[in-house]
Amino acid sequence: EPAALTEPLPAPKVAVPVTVTVQPGYTLWGIAEGQLGEGVMYVQVYEANKDRIRDPDLIYPGQVFTIPAMQ
């Protein structure tokens, strides 16, 4: 009897953290809109990075933020 051909198992899906490096003109709203689909999700971006953000209205070029995975 020939050996059965088996398909390789797909690699497990691992949530890889996504990061964004702030560029001139970026806002938390714009980052959330671009990465999460809705600007109002800026709160989640802020919460995930509040150790690096003193004031959510003031973010600076060169800062690197982690974008939280969608639940």
Topology:
Elements: E1 18-21, H1 28-36, H2 42-49, E2 64-67
Antiparallel strand pairs: 1-2
| CA distance, first residue to last residue | 47 Å
**Apparent shape:** elongated
Strand-pairing-aware structural class: alpha+beta
Biggest sheet: strands, sense, closure? 2 strands, antiparallel
| Number of continuous helical runs | 2
Q: What proportion strand?
A: 5-15%
Give me the side-by-side strand order of the main sheet.
Answer: 1-2
> What does the average pLDDT come to?
87
Total number of β-strand segments?
2
Helix content: 10-25%
Question: Radius of gyration from the CA trace?
Answer: 19 Å
- Low-pLDDT ranges: none
Order of helices and strands: EHHE
What does this 3D model show about the protein?
There is one protein chain. The chain is α+β, with helices and mostly antiparallel strands and 71 residues long. Helices cover 24% and strands 11% of the residues. The protein contains two helices and two strands; from the N terminus they run βααβ. It has helices at residues 28-36, 42-49, and strands at residues 18-21, 64-67. A two-stranded antiparallel sheet has the order 1-2. The radius of gyration is 19 Å and the shape is elongated.
